């Protein structure tokens, strides 16, 4: 009897461990912008004037610039490592095997197509290097080589993890840099979020059943915004030094996106649609940098110009005159626009564990 109890206990313990240690995925398919691009923008050679193809980008992990907007790995890289998968190849890389994953993300990507920006009179403010629906088309073009027939793909993709974004950041950047106020840009949030929801619909129709939908980040805490839109009015800043109006724009988007994800969860009860809370996690890093091992939170590690934020457009990371701090792992911000590898690793951990992803990827 005692032996049977021990065996039963061990079996139960094993089952609990498996539940905690989480899902197994046969592949990861990623979509998004510069927070996720692992090389699509550079597959045909580095575009002229693109600083992220220069040192010190990539120095921490790869020892060279890889067209990633960081000193090392990104969230999607850490997710691949956690599930025993290879780092995702850019989908535009010819002749690659994408059975274990592909990355459609590309620097400068927006949620909305060019017509949206033309209607706002700011078409010149975007690169339009593959908006959301174009990235999904890229994925569809790869599907026959990944999983074969439509029915085979339904089965294969049901065991794959999809990461849809971050989308939205560049849609707002284009408006802000085009002269719109944060409040005016917020007026487009419902349209942008609806487009993200349609992207989820499309992926589910192709066979996806596990989809992570990240929100946007607290851009009011980022050195680029803090530098370009700094004011002398203390009331424009919150208690941690972030610009309140820009964070309110991000928060509005995320509120609408969470509601959209909730409605999609109801619409597709057989799917796992997960909201990844970029905003809350990064804002907590700003609020309490020491608890994450950071000694600086609002200052770019790589840049020039000194000052409070170490950012200036004319001497960005990778440009002449700019240099990286000696310990990127102690910084939240890498280049004033994107985060460090150290921050991305913590974010990936939070998504897998569920601390900042609902439900958890690893649940």
From TrEMBL:
Lineage top rank: taxon: Eukaryota
Keywords on record: Glycoprotein, Hydrolase, Signal
Record GO terms (molecular function): hydrolase activity, acting on ester bonds
Residues making up the signal peptide according to the UniProt record: 1-22
Family (UniProt): Belongs to the 'GDSL' lipolytic enzyme family.
This protein's name: Esterase
Organism name: Setaria viridis
